[in-house]
Structures are given as structure tokens and as C-alpha cells.
Design a protein that fits this description.
The structure is a homodimer.
Chain A: H1 9-17, E1 32-41, H2 45-54, E2 61-65, E3 88-92, E4 95-100, E5 111-117, H3 120-128, H4 134-137, E6 144-150, E7 160-168, H5 173-181, E8 192-193, E9 220-225, H6 229-237, E10 241-245, E11 251-256
Antiparallel strand pairs in A: 1-5, 1-10, 1-11, 2-5, 3-4, 3-10, 6-7, 7-9, 8-9
Chain lengths: 269, 269
């Protein structure tokens, strides 16, 4: 039995490829970059790439695979994007049609694949600095919420920002901001601190994706932009077809998290 | 008679629009961001956007205008990209066909416009820190060279990096690196220091674009990635049609250079 905390990225991808791991990847293959996935037919690729360029906090690009390519180069030299993710969501015209464990049967030659940074990459740095990461402590999927913050639209792509939330003790909020600021390629510093209602979140105990976590007395809810944002955009923009990872079930790369320190995310003005 | 050093961006763009200024823009409307221009038909837009994402040092995106749009939003709320640049180069199948002072007659509804940062934006900071900027001192266009450094290709787009060169006294090289590092959105830190032959430049007195400048005894040639790189890429990739600015003749925006400090350029791994 593989202990996911100890198993490396290659071993985890092999398990996933063989259908033996379909659970969330938080706390798995610790130390390595995990990536959010968006696959779109060619006709939507420019709009989505521009959307990422305009919204680097929720959509920091790590790697883009040109039309028809399903093997990564930068994130791993030995991965197949069609099989190496625990669970995929397949959307048609903005509706979730099904969740599947591989997508070889759905593959099209014009599919463009986008891999986006994930906040899991800065969690190890937070934990080392003794900032608690509750969903890791409680062995749950991170809680994710659809906000009322509108992303900057690009062509046909528009929609609200999705965020993750981590409850932080007040004396450690500054440290959490400082540490995560150094990881712009994986969402960087928080987008909001303290008042969920200000960003349109009504009830922290009912996340839109993932699991709720315990918020202890006095802890401050801190919100970071989340790579599930594209899925909220798909729901709103309704492309004919789109495949993503299932929230929390990410692509595990061979890239150490440390390589992302101070590395900029895509983004213009 | 307008003194270009004193005239603001609106005044300069008005002169340019009326055909009364077709000279280089170095040292003009000092204090404001200038931008390199690339316009491509829609079919090439994804490849070029991805090229920029993969090559953020030569191609740092400041703004992208979707198909058919010719008015900027972020760089200025009162500019027309078809008329507000002193000189345009029109390339067909990778060949320079003509240089014109406006492009309204060539405009197509599927044209996508890319505006890229320019190293002029960090020159004011260099000058304030008493690092000499020779081409400004000598009132010339900056010298630009095609190197043998290959950019990372994207789809149909491939080609060599173009660089600018500034001769720097040895005791100020460190300062020049430190200052320009803070401007990643306008090419950032140098890509090479000291030996032109190492990056394929044979003769500093014969730049591929712009004017040669005086190199004083002991000065070190320092090279920064240049937004003319797309033109070298166009020569090599041969799209059916492409319009760029004429090297050195840039778009003058309303954005103060200071706003670019520590602002990241597009770019993934």
C-alpha cells in the first residue's frame, strides 16, 4: 500500500494512470508542484490563453500544450495528460456531463491543454513556517468558493473568481501573506482577508467545491485565488466542450515547489 | 514647435496622428511607457500569444486587443492603434513590403493587436541613478542586434532574440542590473553582459536596427532583450501578413513608467 505522503510524483502518476487512485491530491507527493487542468478545442484556445494572461492570480499558466499534444514537457517528461489525473470533469455547453478517470476516448486532435498553478505549492512553505493549513491537518480537500469578484473577460470567456480559504490565527496572517507573495506562479498573495461577505461568500461551512474545514475561535479566514476559476468560467461561457480536472484532483508534476519561488505568473497590466 | 522631451503623451500622439512626427521615440514624452507593436490576422493570434507567454523577456505583454479592436484600454483610453505610431512596417510572408505612417487602409476585422513592453521604460530610472544611457545622450535610436539565441518556439512562431545594447562603465554594471531587474514587464534584467560574440554579434558598430553609439574605453556592452524580437520571428515564420512598428518608432502610452516597477511580465516556466 502506497503512503501518498511518501510516494513521489512518478509513483503517484503510475497509480493514477492504472486507476488505483481517484481521491484528492492535497497532501500527496508533498514537495512537488501540482497543476490545475483545462482542455479546450482549438477555436477557444486564444480566448482562454488571453483570459489567463489577463487574470494571472486565478489563472497562472505553468505550461500550455499546443493542439493535439498530450505529453507535458516542462512539468514532467514522462506524463500523459489523458490518463495521469485522478478524475476529470467533462463539460458540454457549460454543463457538467460526466466525471471520468481518463479521457483517451474523448481526445481530439485540436485539443489545447492548459496547466495552471495550484496553491498546494505554497502550503509546504506555510507549514514549515508554522502557519497551520487546516485542510491538510484534517486530511480533507481544500474548501473552494465561487465569489462575486468578476474576472477580466477575454473574447468569449468571462466569469467569477473561485477562491480557496484557509483559517489563519491572527498573529500569523502577516506571515501567511509574506510567504505566499513569493509564489506568484501558484496564485501568490491572498485576494481577500477577513470578511467572506465582502467577496460574496455567504456561508463558509458550505463551500462550492471541496470540503468545509474547522475554523477555530479567533481565526481569520484568508482567501487565495484558485485554479478552479476556469470551471466557473466554463459554466458561464459555455464552450461546446471542455475537459478539466475534478476540483482537488490535480496533475502531479516532477517540478519541486521551490523552483516556483519568485517566479512570475503570466500577466500584463 | 513641440519639444519632444517636454511634450506629454497626448500631445505626441496627436502630432503623430496628424503625420507631423515620424522620427524615433527614444527620449520623447519621457516618463511614460512606450510599447512595441505586433498586429497579426486571427489565425496566427494563438501561436503568437503563446510565443509571448513562453518568451517573456523579449515579449513582455502589456496589452492585447481582441480581433478587430484598434483602441487601447489599459495603455491609453484615447488612442487609435491604426494612426498613433510614427512608422509602421508591413510584412507579407516574412518580407518587409513597405513602411507607412498609418494603417487604416490595411485594417482587417480579424486583426489581433499585441503591445509589448520596451526598455525605454527603465532608462529614466537608470539616468536618475547616474547610469549613462548613451543613445539618449547622443540623441540616437538605440542600437539593436539579432542574436543567435533561439526563442522558445510556439506553433508556427520561431526565431532569434533581438537585443538592445547600452555601454556601461564597469563600476555601474551592478547598478544597471539591479535597477532593470525591477522592470520585468519591460524586458527586466540583461540577458548578457560583456561579450557580444557569445550571443552571435560580430560587430557592435553595425547594429541590425537603430544607430551605433559610442563605446568609451573600458565600458562594458550590456544587452537587454528587445521588443523588436517579433520582427525577427516574422522574418523567419513568414505569416501571410503582419504589421509592426518600425524599430525605434514606438507607441506612446499614458501610463507612467513607475507603474511598471515590480510588475511581472507574462511568462510561465
Amino acid at each position: 500500500m502506497v503512503k501518498p505522503g511518501q510516494a513521489g510524483p512518478k509513483e503517484m502518476r503510475s497509480l493514477i494512470r492504472r486507476g488505483k487512485w481517484d481521491r484528492p491530491t492535497a497532501g500527496v507527493a508533498m514537495g512537488y508542484v501540482q497543476a490545475n487542468l483545462v482542455i479546450l478545442p482549438g477555436e477557444y484556445a486564444f480566448d482562454f490563453l488571453l483570459f489567463c494572461q489577463r487574470n494571472p492570480k486565478p489563472c497562472p499558466l505553468l505550461e500550455v500544450l499546443e493542439g493535439g499534444r498530450y505529453r507535458t514537457r516542462l512539468l514532467s517528461s514522462a506524463a500523459d495528460i489523458r490518463t495521469d489525473i485522478p478524475k476529470y470533469n467533462l463539460y458540454r455547453k457549460g454543463k457538467l456531463e460526466r466525471t471520468v478517470k481518463e479521457i483517451r476516448d474523448f481526445w481530439q486532435d485540436d485539443f489545447v491543454t492548459f496547466l495552471l498553478g495550484c496553491s498546494f505549492s505554497f502550503e509546504e512553505a506555510l507549514i514549515k513556517a508554522r502557519v497551520p493549513v487546516r485542510h491538510v491537518e484534517e486530511n480533507r480537500n481544500v474548501p473552494m468558493y465561487i465569489t462575486r469578484i468578476a474576472c477580466r473577460p477575454a473574447g468569449k470567456m468571462r466569469g467569477p473568481m473561485v477562491v480557496t480559504m484557509r483559517p489563519i490565527p491572527p498573529d500569523k496572517v502577516e506571515r501567511a501573506v509574506r510567504i505566499t507573495s513569493r509564489y506568484p506562479a501558484v496564485h501568490g498573495s491572498p485576494i481577500h482577508i477577513g470578511d467572506p461577505s465582502k467577496i460574496g461568500i455567504k456561508d463558509l461551512s458550505r463551500p462550492d467545491f471541496g470540503d468545509p474545514v474547522t475554523i477555530r475561535k479567533g481565526e481569520v479566514p484568508v482567501f487565495w485565488a484558485c485554479g478552479v476559476t476556469p470551471q466557473a468560467v466554463i459554466l458561464k461561457s459555455k464552450p461546446d466542450l471542455c475537459i478539466t480536472h475534478s476540483p482537488g484532483h490535480l496533475f502531479i508534476s516532477d517540478l519541486p515547489n521551490e523552483e516556483l519561488v519568485d517566479r512570475p505568473a503570466a500577466g500584463g497590466l
